[in-house]
Write a structure and sequence with these properties.
single chain, about 550 residues, mainly beta, 16-stranded antiparallel β-barrel, two-stranded antiparallel ribbon, about 40% strand
């Protein structure tokens, strides 16, 4: 600071000195030519010294700028300089080596595996997976378990096991980040190889298809953030905050691509806006694609079976959805006793529609039904950075499509006269709880329990004149054992990152053991009361460098 003041003072004095030396002297001046030469020489020395000091100050400023860019702490009291100003004033980025000396670089440094694209940063991520799945019964599932289709012991599928060895879970993602006039921008795309598979997919070539998992744009400015695209639903619990980044979500350590029983989620097209009230609270609202789902679970009125094609019945990808689901979410994050605590409340509103020609009429009649529900989720560090407790509870009328299609959203109910129908939403609930122990930065263990529950909604089929009194709907007397009342799962996970390098990525071993049961609403005399199975996932994966950074916090490489 003293040098800077002296430099400024000298700069102010220079014009005065120059003026004094160049102004005309009176005729009677006694100053000799040698005195003038001495004065000029002194002035030259002063100017030279000032130039050297200014150059030194500029060099110090450049060093401080470089330190700020590289995340190092500057001199006490130094003013913060915006990154954009650093780039403009120093087109060739500076780097400070271990000895504190200044060096030049051709490109700005970015994180491992990242690429500079203009002012933006492109980061590829993901992993290559070699996975083995064993189940004690034949669910005919790949890496995503069909929780609703666990076979009973009175079927052939209940007496044979299944084994899959596959690279299907391998994943690739790209994220591009930039800042435009104070707005942080993020684009994210992620895919795997679990798209629609042909019946002969495992014959010879294993031609598994790529599919879209996530594809969204995200902008954050001040306390506001906006997202549009395909993302995890806000009904998917967060570990912290309200953001969309996969590593911030409480999607368990499970290898099962359907996560686990009791954890509601979708990955659907969504537009949402969130506001951060302060460092603890965030609120948001949005809309996402709905799905009026009945699967093959619902027994339809005999005279109106054609109405089933207006719903997602596992054979119709173009269900006649009435409206997008409306979702709102509030999150709270704080530290309790120096431990992270997160809590959230999420609510949704949904609707469905169908159109039929009532008996005795020639005009279509449209029918609608509305439902909704909500979820509370929380997690707390019992031991800081070591042991985490997670839990969530979900309840709804018509929320089945958030539970991996393990039951229907609604049933179709005939009127008393049997001439028309109405739509009736079905109760659906879920819950899970778990403990995650991060034994070290390379090892984690977890245990979870989860359950899905469906209410029953049945009635006589007043349209069935051939068999009066036949019970239809869901879960009634005589209903098939696909009408699930409860599905339960207990899971144990172990993950080990046995090699990791910041530049070259990581190698990880994982294993998951789960025991599941499925109980229907109706059990015929002499038939099994429930279906059950054990399954094991085990494999090794190579994780790309940019993605392996998340292993320090969450061993699962999202």
């Amino acid at each position: 600071m003293r040098n800077l003041i002296r430099s400024v003072w000298l700069l102010l004095m220079v014009p005065g000195l120059a003026y004094g030396q160049t102004a005309a002297h009176p005729a009677d001046s006694s100053m000799s030519s040698s005195d003038v030469a001495t004065q000029l020489d002194a002035l030259r020395q002063a100017l030279l010294q000032t130039q050297q000091q200014v150059a030194a100050q500029q060099q110090e400023i450049q060093v401080l700028k470089a330190q700020l860019k590289s995340g190092q702490s500057g001199t006490a009291g130094a003013a913060l300089i915006p990154a954009a100003e650093v780039v403009r004033s120093n087109p060739t980025p500076l780097n400070i080596n271990s000895s504190g000396q200044q060096t030049q670089q051709d490109e700005e440094q970015t994180s491992a595996g990242s690429i500079k694209v203009g002012d933006a940063v492109l980061t590829p991520g993901g992993f290559v997976d070699f996975e083995n799945i064993f189940r004690t019964t034949n669910t005919q599932s790949n890496i995503a378990t069909n929780f609703a289709g666990i076979p009973f012991s009175n079927t052939a599928a209940g007496h044979v096991s299944e084994l899959r060895t596959t690279a299907q879970f391998s994943r690739l993602n790209f994220r591009i980040e930039d800042n435009f006039r104070g707005t942080d921008l993020l684009g994210y795309v992620e895919g795997d190889f679990s798209g629609n598979s042909a019946p002969g997919v495992y014959q010879s070539v294993n031609g598994l298809t790529n599919r879209l998992r996530l594809y969204f744009g995200y902008a954050k400015r001040g306390n506001w953030e906006i997202l549009g695209g395909q993302t995890w639903s806000w009904l998917t619990p967060n570990r912290d905050g309200i953001g969309p980044i996969p590593s911030d979500l409480a999607v368990t350590y499970n290898e099962d691509q359907n996560l686990g029983v009791g954890v509601p989620y979708t990955r659907a097209a969504e537009f949402r806006i969130a506001y951060h009230v302060n460092e603890h609270w965030a609120i948001g609202a949005g809309v996402e694609n709905s799905n009026q789902y009945i699967g093959t679970y619902v027994a339809l009125p005999a005279q109106f079976t054609a109405v089933g094609s207006q719903f997602d019945n596992n054979a119709n990808a173009g269900a006649a959805n009435l409206m997008p689901d409306i979702i709102a979410k509030t999150t709270y994050d704080t530290r309790l006793a120096a431990r992270h605590f997160h809590a959230e409340v999420t609510g949704f509103f949904t609707g469905a529609q169908a159109s039929v020609i009532p008996d005795g009429s020639t005009v279509f009649q449209k029918h609608t039904a509305f439902g909704g529900g909500g979820q509370f989720a929380t997690n707390y560090e019992l031991i800081p950075n070591r042991l985490v407790l997670l839990a969530n509870v979900f309840w709804s009328d018509g929320g089945a499509h958030y539970l991996v299609g393990t039951g229907p959203e609604l049933v179709v109910r005939p009127d008393a006269a049997g001439t028309d129908v109405n739509l009736s939403m079905l109760h659906a609930g879920a819950g899970s709880a778990g403990l995650e122990w991060r034994a070290s930065q390379k090892e984690a263990l977890a245990v979870y329990y989860g359950a899905d529950y469906y209410g029953r909604n049945f009635f006589p089929d007043t349209t069935n004149t051939a068999h009066p009194g036949t019970i239809i709907g869901y879960g009634g007397p005589g209903s098939p054992n696909t009408n699930n009342r409860a599905i339960q799962q207990v899971t144990f996970d172990w993950l080990l990152t046995f090699w990791k390098n910041e530049r070259y990525g990581a190698l990880q071993y994982y294993t998951q053991y789960s025991y599941l049961t499925r109980a229907p609403w109706y059990v015929a005399p002499g038939q099994p009361r429930d279906a059950h199975l054990s399954m094991v996932y085990a494999g090794v994966r190579y994780v790309l460098p940019s993605t392996s950074g998340t292993l320090l916090r969450v061993p699962y490489p999202n």
